[in-house]
Design brief:
Blueprint lengths: L12 H12 L13 E6 L5 H13 L2 E6 H4 L3 E2 L12 E2 H11 L2 E5 L7 H5 L2 H9 L4 E3 L7 H14 L6 E6 L9 H12 L3 E5 L8 H4 L3 E3 L2 H5 L4 E5 L21 H4 L6 E3 L12 H4 L6 H19 L5
Parallel strand pairs: 1-2, 1-5, 3-4, 5-6, 7-8, 7-10, 8-9, 10-11
The structure holds phosphoric acid mono(formamide)ester.
Phosphoric acid mono(formamide)ester binds next to helix 2.
């Protein structure tokens, strides 16, 4: 694997899930294989899980990691080409990518959507510029449109808990006071498609996601109806895609609670975290035995470890 930018960069998802399972159960031969190699982790946005789980994965592989909070500590980056840089942007992204490639053997980038301009966000300029100009493998730590490491950890978690090859999974929109990006939902949908899961999406009218992502998936605008017989409920907020970046609903009628979970087939509850308690989901659901959120977070380490190993497979 040259870079890990989207779920589709994984050629054999089943093989990778097997490798992650071996890694988690101590059966992998990946311990310390990347000694003396350096992982750069560049964050344009906050993180708890991605930052720490990827560093933990690096420790397990023997990789050293360098972390930079680029927004606070880096120069403002110019993203456009052929531009006279006489404004407040001091460094061009192509130079930054080439320089980081001198210090690191692999680089992870987190750069969220701005939710101001759909076209700009969809071009995923920061991560794609790194892919174009860096001379080392690039790992997506959540870009404008994709969070494939989260989706991989989610697939591991579903695999560990499913009772059939085709579990019924419902991705439900849930309320949030702030406009949030679409990356987690996009990658979760792609992952479910790759694994041939029985996926339904439920969201209020006005919140349909990018049709290029949801193509072929049933979208139900009645949450109670969608929850019926589900084996897994995956909750996530996203801002409107059509009315780009807007919050259209401020009441709590779509919050996941016990009454809604009772409509399901005793479903597991999933969320990528961080989650706003009693806004997105009630305490009772989040703290119940059916909640998988901590298992999802734990699986981030093993997913990152195997992806880093794949990215560095020519470097051992
Ligand atoms: N789920 C996830 O990516 O968490 P962080 O934003 O804390 O990294």
């Amino acid at each position: 694997m040259k870079n890990f930018i989207n779920s589709s960069d994984i050629q054999d998802y089943n093989y990778l899930l097997g490798e992650i399972n071996k890694c988690k159960n101590g059966l992998s031969n990946s311990k310390s294989i990347l000694k003396n190699k350096v992982l750069g982790l560049i964050f344009f946005n906050p993180s708890l899980r991605t930052r720490l789980s990827t560093q933990k994965a690096a420790i397990n592989l023997g990789l050293k990691s360098i972390v930079m909070n680029f927004k606070d500590d880096g120069w403002q980056l110019e993203l456009d080409d052929n531009i006279i840089m006489s404004g407040n942007k001091a460094e061009h992204i192509k130079d930054a990518a080439k320089v980081i490639s001198q210090y690191c053997d692999v680089v992870g980038i987190r750069a969220f959507a701005n939710l101001e301009n759909k076209e700009i966000d969809n071009s995923d300029k920061i991560i794609n510029s790194f892919v174009k100009h860096a001379s080392i493998p690039v790992l997506n730590l959540e870009s404008s449109v994709a969070h494939p490491l989260q989706a991989l950890a989610d697939a591991v978690t579903i695999n560990e808990n499913k009772n059939s090859n085709k579990p019924k999974i419902v991705l439900t929109w849930a309320p949030h006071p702030k406009p949030l990006p679409h990356a987690v939902s996009n990658s979760f949908i792609k992952m479910c498609k790759i694994n041939n899961y029985d996926l339904t999406i439920t969201n209020p009218k006005g919140y349909d996601l990018n049709t290029r992502i949801t193509d072929g998936i049933e979208i139900i605008h009645d949450q109670n109806k969608a929850f019926k017989n589900a084996d897994f409920i995956y909750a996530k907020n996203w801002s409107s895609y059509d009315d780009y970046g807007k919050v259209l609903i401020s009441d709590n009628s779509w919050m996941v609670n016990d009454n809604k979970m009772k409509l399901t087939n005793n479903a597991y509850f999933m969320h990528c975290l961080p989650v706003r308690r009693n806004v997105v989901v009630s305490d009772s659901v989040l703290d119940s035995k059916k909640s998988l959120v901590i298992q999802q977070a734990n699986n981030r380490t093993y997913a990152a470890q195997i992806i880093l190993k794949e990215l560095m497979s020519d470097e051992k």
